[in-house]
Automatic annotation (TrEMBL):
Keywords: Signal
InterPro entries: DUF3833
Pfam families cross-referenced by the UniProt entry: DUF3833
Entry protein name: DUF3833 domain-containing protein
Signal peptide: 1-17
Length: 195
């Protein structure tokens, strides 16, 4: 009797979980429209934090991003400079190619393989792996990224981070477009000199 009741509960929960799965196509009519090549061309600044699976904030950071869109090759290059609250710095350079009206593929030095994503309406999602360096060791984790463009040019990003299918934590980031005078002077100098 107990086994049958547990089975009924499980069969009820599984379809409900499947129905709750978000699809990027569900946002196709939402405004404002998010086009990565438009939003990230030029200077962007982002503010973020990482929460572990228990909800505790483990890291906070600011990212200065310089983006170049090449319409000939349909390629967006993003030079991201991270500055963490503890003073540590990092850099990631994305090469993102628009492969269709809604599809994108991206590569970066610490991203094994290729990130694949889609944009519809005000939403963009993609999944990729990252090799994270922690205390001299490297850990490969998976990011399930969702971005939503809001009014006034604010872009909200949330990413679930997992390893072997188990939750590691969540990254939350808010992006805003800036002009050259609003970018950190040291980060801007690094972008200009290529350091």
């Amino acid at each position: 009797m107990l086994l049958r009741r547990m089975l009924l509960i499980a069969l009820t929960i599984v379809p409900l979980a499947a129905c709750g799965s978000m699809r990027v196509q569900d946002f196709q009519n939402n405004e404002p429209r998010l086009r990565l090549e438009d939003y990230f061309a030029g200077q962007t600044k982002a503010y973020g934090l990482f929460r572990d699976r228990f909800g505790d904030v483990r890291r906070q950071f600011v990212v200065t991003i310089h983006g170049d869109w090449d319409p000939q090759t349909r390629t967006l290059t993003l030079d991201e400079r991270f500055r963490y609250q503890d003073g540590e710095t990092d850099r990631r350079v994305w090469t993102i190619r628009k492969t269709g009206p809604h599809s994108y593929q991206g590569t970066a030095g610490d991203v094994p393989g290729t990130a694949r994503g889609e944009a519809y309406g005000n939403a963009f999602t993609w999944t990729y792996q990252v090799d994270l360096e922690v205390d001299g060791s490297s850990y490969r984790v998976t990011f399930d990224d969702w971005m939503f463009l809001q009014e006034d040019g604010v872009l909200l990003n949330t990413a679930d981070v997992t390893k072997w299918g188990f939750e590691v934590g969540t990254v939350t980031i808010a992006f805003r477009q800036v002009d050259g005078t609003d970018v950190d002077a040291d980060a801007q100098a690094q972008v200009l000199t290529g350091e």
